[in-house]
Write a structure and sequence with these properties.
Blueprint: E1 2-6, E2 18-19, H1 22-34, H2 38-41, E3 44-46, E4 52-54, H3 56-65, E5 69-74, H4 80-91, E6 96-97, H5 99-105, H6 108-113, H7 123-130, H8 143-159
Helix pairs in contact: 1-3
């Protein structure tokens, strides 16, 4: 059932792993300000407790735009499993994913089944992207203490997979 309600009655879904940030979010707010009728054509989907199943970022953008009322549609006949599936399927093509949220709170098999593409991480590109971090340590010591300190530093480097160069 489609209805118009106070925006204060709608609750964001904190388990929704989809986010739109920065410039993309500002564009969404601007589009709502410029074309608020789109919200009637694509209502925010909520469950019986008024928690968002579809349109979490639109709700946030509507609040940012200063709207008092918003069009919703209640998905009253969905099981909890269907609600979770709806959240993912409704968001497969837009925005960015909160990968931590997905990894910690969602079933990977279902996510793949519902159409979510997982990025592949090539470890060879990590070195190129992150570069190595260098720490320069200057130590004044006698030969005896230097040998002892060198052994301790080497053990520490081995423990953290760090390459140590001694000049």
């Amino acid at each position: 059932m489609i209805e118009k309600v106070s925006i204060k009655d709608i609750k964001s879904n904190h388990n929704n792993p989809r986010v739109i940030r920065d410039d993309k979010f500002r564009k969404l707010v601007r589009s709502i300000n410029e074309f608020p009728e789109m919200l009637e054509l694509r209502p925010i989907v909520v469950n019986d407790e008024m928690v968002v199943l579809g349109g979490n970022m639109r709700l946030k953008a509507c609040k940012e735009a200063g709207l008092d009322q918003i069009t919703i549609i209640k998905a009253s006949n969905l099981s909890e499993a269907q609600q979770a599936e709806f959240i993912i399927k409704d968001n497969v093509g837009f925005g960015e994913w909160d990968w931590d949220e997905l990894a910690n709170n969602w079933d990977e098999a279902n996510l793949k089944l519902w159409g979510l593409d997982f990025p592949s991480f090539d470890e060879s590109t990590i070195d190129e992207q992150e570069e190595q971090a260098f720490v320069k340590v200057s130590i004044e010591a006698t030969n005896d203490t230097f040998i002892e300190m060198n052994e301790k530093l080497q053990n520490l480097c081995d423990e953290y997979s760090v390459v140590m160069k001694v000049k």
